[in-house]
Specification:
Blueprint: H1 2-38, H2 58-61, H3 67-77, E1 80-84, E2 90-94, H4 97-106, E3 111-113, H5 115-125, H6 134-144, H7 150-175, E4 180-183, H8 184-201, H9 225-234, H10 238-266, H11 270-273, H12 282-292, H13 301-332, H14 334-346, H15 352-357, H16 359-371, E5 377-382, E6 386-395, E7 401-407, E8 412-416, H17 417-421, H18 424-427, H19 445-450, H20 472-489, E9 490-494, E10 499-502, E11 508-511, E12 522-527
Parallel strand pairs: 2-8
Antiparallel strand pairs: 1-2, 3-5, 4-12, 5-8, 6-7, 9-12, 10-11
Helix pairs in contact: 7-8, 7-20, 8-13, 10-12, 10-13, 13-16, 13-20
Bound molecules: protoporphyrin IX containing FE.
């Protein structure tokens, strides 16, 4: 009898475990089924047939050569497209201006950053702007906004000029003896990193490799930090180990710089703070503002460190991608390059106000950022059921018209920034042509009427609303300073290698036929 009881314990344990696992499985399945049923109304929206139940369209939408697929489905289905995600999930691609107004302005608390993005950003950067939402996010924005004001941009412009001069000298030395093929992607990535690091942290960077890895960050789950670290260390995945390592170094570096600056400021040693970054860098300004802020508005130290990490990541790849794109386009359009050079050479001096007022430089930047937004698509997750109005009705799969879009909670909405910036229905037939001159005359009435809810030039390149790019004036200044110095001194023309652009979270240049993930853009450079 006794042996029967002791024998039955392992069986009982096994039974218990199996039942436990089964209930977890049933609950997960029921939850999945519940969401899929709630998404049924979305099936009426037209979209391409799904190639796979498991991964839906993700294989086609998110790969480095995905741009033609995005263009193809936009041409076939228009501004509202149904696609499939993982295991039958339904998602919507939006490029309708009125729907975007709801997503980014009117209903921005409902269409928030996706939970997986908040969680993974939180793990890598800490509680910075890319990892918080709601009231917490608004409080952080309120404190950071003044640091990106025009007044501050004017003050920081000479620092940008002097950093760019140093890079210009290196380039001069390289092409001194005659035209050279130069990998401008590497050059501009370093410049962008230096501009954000010195202008942001007031410190010259030691982490030039980190920008290469951002796109590799997977949607890491919400595991507690210690467990996450344990799991990550056990996984045979070198890229993940590398990322964890970078995240550690980033945090340690930012924290060290922060501690040094804070100690100097606490001691009232302003002269020492000014040694690097001339004391006008974002960190110094933010620290001083935080010290002066009322107690209930002060940001805790770890959040300030997180903001610095966030700015380094959000500001480096984006700006270097934009600068590479402009240079690539200018190298392919020598007449436009010459016209720009003439405007820059005629300018008396290139301080902040003169740079901001140069019409052709501005038109070249606007047109490049419109046609080729560095971040081509972003995702939001709908937090509760909602109907949003559309600019024009769409035809459903059963032939009806729909003038508003019903979005059930938990649905992911992908906003196709590039599609809305390039919509021929708004800009006309030449929407896909790079033509800076379009910004020297009034835009078509259809663009004005559409009321695209972006903060920049009737485009969504820097988004709009409470989560719009906080660094957009900063990046404009970086681009204009860099371009003004480069175009005045050098002539750029296409190299023998064919440059192609990889699609992803960010457009990045590469040489056709190569497999390296690092941005590469050989261009023929010669002195003017
Ligand atoms: C051409 C250059 C740039 C482009 C195209 C760009 C674009 C964007 C976009 C599309 C977003 C929204 C991302 C999302 O919500 O998922 C964003 C957010 C952000 N950007 Fe930029 N950006 C650029 C440069 C910069 C620079 C130079 C900085 C900092 C110095 C910066 C800092 C940020 C930050 C902190 C956010 C998060 C804002 C928030 O959630 O409140 N960006 N940017």
């Amino acid at each position: 009898m006794l042996s029967e009881i002791s024998l039955s314990w392992p069986i009982l344990l096994q039974l218990g475990l199996s039942l436990g696992l089964l209930s977890v499985g049933v609950l997960a399945f029921a939850r999945l089924a519940y969401y899929r049923v709630r998404q049924l109304p979305l099936r009426k929206i037209r979209g391409p047939p799904s190639p796979s139940f498991l991964i839906g369209h993700f294989g086609q939408l998110f790969n480095t050569a995905a741009l033609p697929f995005h263009e193809e489905i936009f041409n076939a289905y228009g501004n509202i497209i149904r696609i499939n995600g993982i295991v039958g999930d339904t998602q919507i691609i939006v490029s309708d201006a009125k729907a975007c107004t709801s997503i980014f302005l009117k209903e921005q608390d409902i269409f928030e950053e996706s939970p997986w993005a908040l969680a993974s950003n939180g793990r890598v950067f800490g509680l910075g702007l890319l990892s918080t939402m709601g009231a917490h996010h608004r409080r952080q924005r309120k404190q950071l906004n003044p640091v990106f004001s025009i007044k501050h941009m004017r003050a920081i412009a000479p620092l940008f000029q002097s950093i760019t001069h140093q890079f210009q000298d290196v380039l001069h030395a390289m092409v001194d003896k005659g035209p050279q093929e130069v990998d401008m992607a590497e050059w501009l990535s370093r410049l962008a990193l230096e501009l954000v690091a010195q202008g942001g942290l007031g410190h010259t960077p030691t982490l030039s490799e980190l920008y290469l890895w951002r796109e590799w960050f997977p949607p890491v789950s919400n595991l507690p930090p210690k467990l996450l670290r344990f799991v990550a260390n056990c996984l045979p995945w070198p890229i993940l180990h590398h990322l964890m390592h970078i995240s550690d170094i980033m945090y340690a570096n930012a924290k060290k710089i922060f501690d040094e600056k804070k100690a100097l400021l606490d001691r009232g040693d302003e002269a020492a703070v000014s040694q690097i970054g001339e004391g006008k860098d974002i960190l110094s300004v933010l620290l001083k503002a935080n010290m002066a802020a009322p107690d209930d508005e002060k940001m805790p130290d770890d959040e300030i460190v997180a903001q610095m990490n966030t700015l380094l990541f959000a500001g480096t790849d984006t700006t270097s991608s934009a600068l590479c794109r402009v240079l690539h386009l200018l190298s392919e359009h020598p007449t436009i390059q010459d016209k720009l050079r003439a405007e820059l050479t005629d300018a008396p001096e290139l301080d902040y106000d003169i740079l901001s007022g140069l019409p052709y430089l501005d038109a070249v930047c606007r047109e490049s950022l419109r046609l080729w937004p560095p971040v081509p698509v972003i995702t939001r997750t709908c937090r509760s059921d909602i109907s949003i109005p559309l600019s024009k009705p769409i035809t459903t799969t059963d032939g009806h018209y729909m003038s508003s879009l019903y979005v059930p909670s938990n649905t992911d909405v992908l906003v196709d920034i590039r599609a809305i910036n390039n919509d021929p229905a708004l800009l006309g037939e030449d929407a896909a042509v790079w033509r800076p001159e379009r910004w020297l005359q009034p835009l078509p009435q259809a663009v004005e009427d559409a009321r695209i809810p972006g903060i920049y030039s009737n485009t969504l390149t820097f988004l709009g609303g409470g989560r719009a790019c906080i660094g957009f004036k900063y990046s404009q200044l970086e681009m204009k300073v860099a371009l003004s110095q480069l175009i005045r001194s050098f002539r750029f023309s296409p190299s023998t290698a064919e440059v192609i652009w990889r699609y992803g979270g960010l457009f990045s240049p590469s040489v056709k036929g190569t497999t390296t993930m690092s941005p590469t853009m050989p261009i023929l450079v010669k002195n003017v």
